[in-house]
Amino acid sequence: MNLKLLFISTFLGVFCYSNAQKEGNECINANAKYCGECIQAGAKCGWCKDPNFLKQGETVSTRCDELQSLIKRGCAEAEIENPHGTHKIIKDKPVTNRSKGAEKLKPEDITQIQPQKLSLTLRSGEPQSFNLKFKRAEDYPIDLYYLMDLSYSMKDDLENVKNLGTSLRVEMSKITSDFRIGFGSFVEKTVMPYISTTPAKLLNPCTGDQNCTSPFSYKNVLKLTEDGKKFNTLVGQQHISGNLDSPEGGFDAIMQVAVCGEQIGWRNVTRLLVFSTDAGFHFAGDGKLGGIVLPNDGKCHLENNVYTMSHYYDYPSIAHLVQKLSDNNIQTIFAVTEEFQPVYQELKNLIPKSAVGTLSANSSNVINLIIDAYNSLSSEVILENSKLPEGVTIAYTSHCKNGVVSEGENGRKCSNISIGDEVMFSISVTSKGCPKQGKPETIKIKPLGFTEEVEITLNFICECECHKEGVKNSPKCHFGNGTYECGACKCNEGRVGRKCECSSNDVATEDMDRTCRKDNGTDICSNNGDCVCGTCECKKRDNPEERYSGPYCECDNFNCDRSGNKLCGGHGRCECRVCICDPMWTGSACDCSLDNSTCMATNKQICNGRGTCECGICKCTNPKFQGPTCETCPTCPGVCVEHKECVQCRAFGTGEKKDTCEQDCSYFHLIKVKDRDKLPQPNDASYPLMHCKERDTNDCWFYYTYAVNNNTEKEVHVVETQDCPAGPDIIPIVAGVVAGIVLIGLALLLIWKLLMIIHDRREFAKFEKEKMNAKWDTGENPIYKSAVTTVVNPKYEGK
């Protein structure tokens, strides 16, 4: 039964570990046949080039493993191929520090991004990181191209734009001393149904007596110039045109402005395109209405500053525009009326480094709109990279103002950047595997809307250093049937075997299989390997620590006895299913220690002189004594007093040790029971225990048992409630005192009342007696005068 349980637990442990390792060990899963293939499997993989490293039955691919595993298996560090990537900065010009009004610099002499060029050598799975600094330069040159819708609805807007050149130059001079402005206009494709193609309408598309110019798709009116007055003059000569439908052909114009850099006059500075309209836009696919099916080619088609292929190519798509605007570092400002704000807000979300401003009905606020949009765009830096080679990934971490750190997509950008502010980006480049050609690749990273960029050359580590020392057609590879490199044979096509000794057509013959059966049995390579060229090549396990070996793959290093769920008790190694124990250990599972130091008691005696030391564990001969060195006596006198304070603080949080309980009293396992009957009894336990009854400072008794169980753990069972003497019943006492006071008061009142009655009666009797004895004179009082006075009126006649 025990053996069965041991087998099940061993199997489950191995199964769980194998599944955990299956995904994790990329080196084993790679099944690499040569060193270059191994190091491409992952950054943790190494290749042992020691010619004598492989044991009998092991395949060439077992040379590829994690570094610690190779060292543990006996490969010296000097024999392990484990190349590492590097990075080297080639051009590191510092960012420009200058203030407005200082010596004027050419645009190419101003640096806002550092470094400018570097080289990375990439090992598969190993990231290479570097820091990129961006500083928004003071007084940086600006090119602004104003692209205006000249359909009839923009008539009043044209009047306000005619003085834009000088006015805008004055405002922009507060930002930069190097400012250029240009102007272009657009209407619509010159085919039905976008415009009327009748001869009269081609000359004047407007109705009534309105004088309008002929319709056109896009016209570059003024190349970028520093002359604001020239801008005013040429714009003043422009006339309104007209078309039939509401959406305009602005996308055709934007595409030409983006790709016709020479005709527009763009410099390698901040490039702003102001797109002014009061209508929506046509995009890719709309050209089919006019019979135009060819997709926009994204090339410049300006002849005499007029777009000549509007009737031939369809409108560009939004994605096409995004690509061209980004490639040419153009930041777009959509100045549109309030009616079309929602449409252009959605478009802004698709075009990086773009802004939307609300244009008044007659464009009177266009200057403030441009200034606000420029400040918004220039205060944010967003990094983008060119297309990455296959298998290469890049990660960004931004370190912005006020200590704000972001990762992921937000790691590409920083906001609220003022002139002169520095921000830092940490960039990590990782390659998985090696490109097919293995040649160096170049990628570029740049801030959107800026012409400056970082050029990165990517070199890939596709082979080991020892590959250079390989010997083609080496005699070590069976008469020259392979290249001997990095300690192993790399067989020529059609050859197999550890030393390329067999043809791939002969590897499965009956004669060869016979030599792979042990004792003429039926199992080829003990069912643990494959017979290749008459030699067993053992299967690999998912767990890199586990291996089959032997001439017939009959041995393994994972089916030995276990102790404590560890192979060979963790004190030996498993060879061919037998534990080879480390020094001072013995037993089938290497779980028996020959070291007596663990049995040494404090009195320097083995097991305190009361037991024997077996496999590093004391077997106490006197049953009264327990513990790892037979020094614990749970039933000896004084045990209860010794542990009283700790039991009190652990169980009830009181006592002298309540403040140091966690430090001083964690040496035993505490178990609480409800009452004394639940405490373990001596007859119930297979080890001695002591019953204790102790009293605390409040005269409360508490009961517990102390024992050392069979696992040498100290165990305390304690009754969770204390037995305290009953205190006086306060309520009856208080009630009695109150009642007594009341009764005494009533008695005193009665006595006083009684005395008063007796006194009153005595006084009355005395009064009556004196009354009877008195002799009163009943005559008139001589001094008595009547209170009545009678007066007679002398004139009264009695009438």
UniProtKB/TrEMBL annotation:
Stored InterPro entries: EGF_extracell, EGF_integrin_1, EGF_integrin_2, Integrin_bsu, Integrin_bsu_cyt_dom, Integrin_bsu_tail, Integrin_bsu_tail_dom_sf, Integrin_bsu_VWA
UniProt membrane topology term: Single-pass type I membrane protein
Transmembrane segments: 730-752
Primary localization: membrane
GO cellular component annotations of the record: cell surface; focal adhesion; integrin complex; lamellipodium; melanosome; ruffle membrane; synapse
Domain (Integrin beta subunit tail): residue spans on this chain: 640-729
One Pfam family in the UniProt entry: Integrin_B_tail
Domain Integrin beta subunit VWA, chain residue ranges per copy: 35-464
Entry superkingdom: Eukaryota
Gene Ontology terms for molecular function: C-X3-C chemokine binding; collagen binding involved in cell-matrix adhesion; fibronectin binding; integrin binding; laminin binding; metal ion binding; protein kinase binding
GO BP: cell adhesion mediated by integrin; cell migration; cell-cell adhesion; integrin-mediated signaling pathway; muscle organ development
Domain Integrin beta subunit cytoplasmic residues, every copy: 753-799
Signal sequence extent: 1-20
Alphabetic keyword roster: Calcium, Cell adhesion, Cell junction, Cell membrane, Cell projection, Disulfide bond, EGF-like domain, Glycoprotein, Integrin, Magnesium, Membrane, Metal-binding, Myogenesis, Phosphoprotein, Receptor, Repeat, Signal, Transmembrane, Transmembrane helix
Subcellular location: Cell membrane; Cell projection, Invadopodium membrane; Cell projection, Lamellipodium; Cell projection, Ruffle membrane
Disulfide bonds: C27-C464, C35-C45, C38-C75, C48-C64, C206-C212, C260-C300, C400-C414, C434-C692, C462-C466, C477-C489, C486-C525, C491-C500, C502-C516, C531-C536, C533-C568, C538-C553, C555-C560, C574-C579, C576-C607, C581-C590, C592-C599, C613-C618, C615-C661, C620-C630, C633-C636, C640-C649, C646-C724, C665-C700
PANTHER family documented for this protein: INTEGRIN BETA SUBUNIT (PTHR10082), INTEGRIN BETA-1 (PTHR10082:SF28)
Similarity comment: Belongs to the integrin beta chain family.
Protein name: Integrin beta
Organism of this sequence: Lates calcarifer (Barramundi)
Source taxonomy: Eukaryota, Metazoa, Chordata, Craniata, Vertebrata
